[in-house]
Amino acid sequence: MEQPINILERYWGFTTFRPLQESIINAVLDNEDTFALLPTGGGKSLCFQIPALIKEGICIVVSPLIALMKNQVQALNEKGIKAMALTSGIAYSELDTMLDNCIYGNYKFLYLSPERLQQEIVQDRIRQMHVNLIAVDEAHCISQWGNDFRPAYKNIVTLREIQPNVNCIALTASATPKVVDDIVAELDFIDAKIFQQSFHRDNLAYMTFETEDKRYELERILKKNQAPSIIYVRNRKATLEISSFLESKGFATTYFHGGLSNYEKDQRLNAWLREQKPIMVSTNAFGMGIDKPNVKTVIHLNLPDSLESYFQEAGRAGRNGNKAFAVILKSNSDEAHLKNQFLKVLPTIYFIKTVYRKLCNYFQVSYGEGQHKSFDFNFNSFCKTYNFNSALAYNALQALDRTSVINLSQQFKNQTSLQFIVSNNSLFQYLNNHPNLSLTVKSLLRTYGGIFEHETTINTLRISEKVSITEKELENKLLMLEKDEIIALKLSRTDAQITFIEPREDDKTINRIAKTIEQQNKVKTNQVASVIAYMSNNDTCKSIQLLSYFGETNLEPCGICSVCIKDKQVQQTDAVKDITEAIITKLELGPLSSREMVEQLKFNKEIIHNTLKVLLEHGVIAITNNNTYKLSHV
Questions:
Q1: So what's the pLDDT on residue 495?
Q2: What is the spatial order of strands in the sheet that 229-232 belongs to?
Q3: What are φ and ψ of residue 458, in 5° steps?
Q4: Three-class secondary structure of residue 359 per DSSP
Q5: Choice among 321-325, 491-495, 512-516 with the minimum mean pLDDT
Q6: Which residues contact 623 (CB under 8 A, 6 or more apart)?
Q7: 534 found inside a domain
Q8: What pLDDT score was predicted for residue 412?
Q9: pLDDT tens across 103-119, in order?
Q10: Which residues, 6+ apart, have CB-to-CB distance to 137 below 8 Å?
Q11: Domain encompassing residue 408
């Protein structure tokens, strides 16, 4: 049997393993049921890929993330390793051929979603495969106590029944002790070998700052740490706004969210990876599977919805071992926003029943029917028809999707695609005769490179805003271009597709999943409470708070987080004297604002602000009409 280190060097070019990797691989090779709890960037995928390459047969990888599946399959194929992924939208005949290739085509990896395991054809073919390992990625999804619980993950037990002699490895980057126990039980592990690497990162400073001017603080942090950064924001609109703000301040930035076309995503990702645009402003759609070692700062402009997701996102900083920062900027209103966004829109069982019933009526699905039927779905139209709050309705549909009542295939980014089918000269000749279309066409050409070479998905809202017209007016202009054979157009008026997995049974359907939904609502409530507690606790080391949440004990203060730094500076009694003298020296040269003071003095911002308050109280300094500080005797 070939040695793991040889496989590592041949395919990945590394000569040593990261901590715990080799022990985990050896346990898998010894046919043990294995649990690997490694932090983000800990090299989890190699823990199943290397033993699967050593053993005869094919490894089945269960993952909930289509983008991550595609990335891993592409990376393996580029190394000459045969791998495939069963993603959505595959026709039955194609699925049939792909599964045959897994049996007879010397494939080493088959990636699939847990929902695929419900299909009889998939189960039948897996019985015929020479399976050498079952790998469960994002294993926390199987636990009702975990972040992003997916009941479909319970189908993995079926896989173990189909291949009873095959061992299993479960992998995750975030799990509390309760979730670990749940995963081991749900996956029917026998004498589980559990490997857990401490999540402690010597080089990563967790910082939380209170501010009422987040843009100013953001600019200050990025000026101080001029290196690749990720800035997480709450929604798509904010990605564009913050990116534009930073560009106006001279930073090279780009932005990323789920509504961009695949072409745009690739373009922006590459610009960031190559550091043409070293600052990425993104929703949480960015980062999974991205390994850029030299990220200096990860900044959250909004409170995260859970410590699990925050820990993963923050962990994308400093993977090269150099000093890095994970920063949350908090204002007074953030706590209320967090509760409004994640708790006030948790759907009740009654509301989910209502949405489900209306959804069936919307598509005229009769009682007892609808199973496996798919429909194009316009979410906004649905909400308008039944006067639903869009956030509540969306969360209700998400709950139905997670519990496998429906499949909600979001296609917001695939609404409209087009390609120019005339030459450059012909196009501009046409525009001379149709000047009313000139601005629209030029906007398309400047926004989407390659739109002459291949069909390109466009964001109609973005283009309409650029041209200062409505989306309906843009649609009419595109139809005219199509009619005049200038473009090939695919115009979709839907933003999603709904597939009914179960036949309609109204309340009976929802009653079966009611306990699961209530449990998930409780988990989300606890998660939000944990985030608020983390932000509010400025007495305990931030690293200790996070590591304790994930069950680690006997912890020492990190010495570099915002709490530890503040404590150090408070302990340094001479520092107060030094700051006072520095402030007075600066003010002797003329009035300064508190911002200017922070920028010019090399002390902690909070200590400077506290010293200014003390000097004001003692009449040493005064505030001018311009809200700057001056010496009282001047």
A1: 62
A2: 204-210, 324-330, 297-300, 229-232, 279-282, 253-256
A3: -115, 155
A4: helix
A5: 491-495
A6: 616, 629, 630
A7: no
A8: 42
A9: 999 999 999 988 888 88
A10: 44, 45, 61, 62, 63, 64, 65, 68, 171, 172
A11: 340-412+496-527
pLDDT of residue 164 exceeding 50: yes
| SS3 per-residue string spanning 480-548 | HHHHCCCEEEEECCCCEEEEECCCCCCHHHHHHHHHHHHHHHHHHHHHHHHHHHHHHCCCCCHHHHHHH
Burial class for 483, CB neighbours closer than 10 Å (0-12, 13-18, 19+): exposed
Same-domain check for residues 372 and 261: no
Paired tokens of 279: 């600052």
User: Looking at residue 251, what is its pLDDT?
Assistant: 96
**Strands, E assignment, 182-266:** 193-196, 204-210, 229-232, 253-256
Residue 259 tokens, joined = 């509504």
Strand, helix or coil for residue 303 = coil
Give yes or no for a contact between 487 and 421, defined as CB atoms under 8 angstroms apart.
Answer: yes
pTM for the whole thing? 0.70
pLDDT interval class at 414 (50, 70, 90): very low
Same domain, 465 and 505: no
DSSP 8-state code for residue 375? E
**Strand bridging mode 406-410 / 374-377:** unpaired
User: How many domains, in total, are found in the chain?
Assistant: 5
Pair of tokens at residue 290: 């991205």
Question: In the beta sheet, which residues pair with residue 328?
Answer: 208, 300
Say how far apart CA 600 and CA 577 lie, in whole Å.
17
